[in-house]
Design brief:
Number of helices: 12
Radius of gyration: 19 Å
Order of helices and strands: HHHHHHHHHHHH
Largest sheet: none
CATH architecture: Orthogonal Bundle
Shape: globular
Strand content: under 5%
Number of domains: 1
């Protein structure tokens, strides 16, 4: 279920909800948010299980992923598939209960459809250059973000700067993360973006995305969010030395260490994001 990765959904949804509360003075109902987050988290847990089910043979040859539950044989493939379907069904049920056929359910269905296209044959977008990056690191963050926004605002009208911040940071981070698997993807014959375009071009693209995301955050703090959020963003930069290897030589990333570091820092950022909002109120 990868509960640590729920931080991506929780973070994107929280930033969206808090922005709605500040920018449009939307009334934020914590209980509604919790149910909405539960729906998104269970959806992604089901999709992660589906991804591991689909990739179980390739992951068994990966130096790190071979230790996951399914490729290691700790969980049978049939059990994993049934578990995945159950989690997705529960997610859709919660979504329907809290929103019916509203925009939140649209976000859930969009993430489900995109991830099936990304993961499952014959589409398998993760194995196709360019669309692997678009599907994996642009489409999903958009709907994670809007899943938090439309819980309280009945329209897809969030400030573009805040959304670009999320897309830039997560696209850049995803690109660097994918480079850590470049040798493995070459070995099994994948023609992904990382394999096709090479490390230098992918690094440039990732750096550009991170820079755009950072600039968008500054702009958002000057136009949409209170200026105190800018200082909180600067505080997060103090952790930059911890990402030295990931930024300079992503193929040598310690994936386990980077996994925990990235998600813990994002949770710290989100905790500060919430605290500032509470103090403003």
């Amino acid at each position: 279920m990868r509960p640590m990765e729920w931080s991506k959904s929780f973070g994107n949804m929280t930033i969206a909800a808090v922005t709605a509360g500040i920018f449009l003075h939307a009334g934020l109902d914590p209980i509604r948010f919790i149910w909405g987050f539960a729906s998104v988290a269970l959806l992604w847990s089901g999709l992660y299980a589906l991804n591991d089910y689909t990739d179980r043979k390739a992951d068994a040859m990966h130096p790190v992923k071979k230790n996951r539950a399914i490729p290691s044989g700790k969980v049978s493939a049939k059990t994993a598939l049934a578990f995945s379907i159950l989690l997705i069904f529960i997610s859709l049920s919660i979504s329907w209960i809290i929103d019916g056929a509203g925009l939140f359910t649209v976000c859930i269905l969009a993430m489900l459809a995109n991830q099936i296209l990304y993961t499952m044959p014959p589409f398998s977008l993760k194995k196709r250059p360019v669309v692997d990056l678009i599907s994996g690191s642009l489409v999903n963050p958009i709907f994670r973000f809007y899943a938090g926004w439309v819980l309280f605002v009945p329209a897809f009208n969030a400030p573009i700067a805040v959304l670009v911040f999320i897309l830039g940071v997560q696209f850049g981070g995803f690109g660097l993360y994918r480079m850590a698997s470049k040798k493995h993807e070459e070995k099994i014959g994948l023609r992904s973006s990382v394999v096709l375009f090479g490390e230098k071009n992918m690094k440039r693209l990732a750096y550009a995305a991170l820079a755009i995301g950072a600039l968008a955050y500054v702009y958002a703090c000057l136009t949409v969010l209170p200026i105190v959020y800018l200082f909180w963003g600067f505080a997060m930069i103090l952790a930059l030395p911890l990402y030295k290897t990931a930024l300079k030589n992503p193929q040598k990333i310690n994936m386990n260490k980077m996994y925990w570091l990235t998600y813990i820092q994002y949770l710290v950022f989100i905790a500060g994001f919430i605290l500032i909002y509470i103090l403003i109120l």
